[in-house]
Write a structure and sequence with these properties.
With 227 residues, the protein is an alpha/beta fold. The chain is 56% helix and 12% strand.
């Protein structure tokens, strides 16, 4: 499968470097470039990319706002956030808005190519450890109780098995690992994940993981496991 990639970054040298690096992969074609988030809707309509590599900090419309607007559209492409910081509040907000993951600008070229491929295949580019690091680094104490309550209320609408699958997603387990742990078939796990996304109005597994984390279910699960 050929992956159609749109690069959005306000630095022309960064765009040129990314285009040169990513365009060299046999299965990736650079369909367009943009210098600001304001250009994203038009570029997406014109070029129909599979993945948008989106810089966070841009002068007019930042990558966060552009991601929120783009992911709210039906049939939106996946978004891979490009940033210079690994623990940044804007990165976390972009993930909540529906970005499938993020890569640092100093990431080795081969790893950025792999990240684009993973996102195009529907796999989030974010480990549970990084998710927790982000949450711990940027979450303010006063904001956590209401966020936890809201997240718990949203998850309360899931069936028991769906809740178990959601927690497993939050732990970073693959569909095969979830199937083995819960004695389910992989297709059944996929069905549960799809239902969870639909019920919670989410659009990828990263958002499930963040919601489970917000609700405190990972802390609870670890406590039970260690008892």
């Amino acid at each position: 499968m050929t992956i159609r990639l749109l690069i959005v970054d306000d630095d022309p040298l960064v765009r040129a470097g990314l285009a040169l690096m990513l365009g060299g992969a046999e299965d990736i074609v650079i369909v367009g470039e943009g210098a600001d988030g304001a250009e994203v809707p038009g570029l997406v309509d014109r070029h129909t990319p599979d993945v948008v590599l989106m810089d966070i900090r841009m002068p007019k419309v930042d990558g966060l706002t552009a991601t929120e607007r783009l992911r709210a559209r039906p049939g939106a492409p996946e978004v891979l956030v490009l940033t210079t910081f690994h623990a940044d509040e804007q990165v976390l907000r972009a993930l909540r808005a529906g970005a499938a993951g993020f890569v640092l600008k100093d990431t080795p070229p081969a790893e950025i190519v792999t990240a684009v491929r993973r996102v195009a295949a529907g796999d989030p580019v974010l480990s549970p450890a990084v998710t927790r690091q982000l949450m711990t680094h940027v979450a303010g104490g006063p904001q956590e109780p209401p966020r936890r309550t809201t997240a718990a209320q949203r998850l309360a609408g899931l069936a028991e098995r769906e809740r178990e699958v959601a927690v497993a997603v939050g732990e970073g387990r693959s569909n095969a690992e979830i199937a083995a742990a819960l004695y389910l078939s992989v297709p059944t796990v996929k069905t549960h994940v799809s239902r969870i996304l639909a019920k919670l109005d989410l659009n990828n597994r990263v958002q499930i993981a963040l919601l489970v984390h917000d609700a405190g279910l990972l802390d609870l699960h670890e406590g039970e496991g260690g008892a």
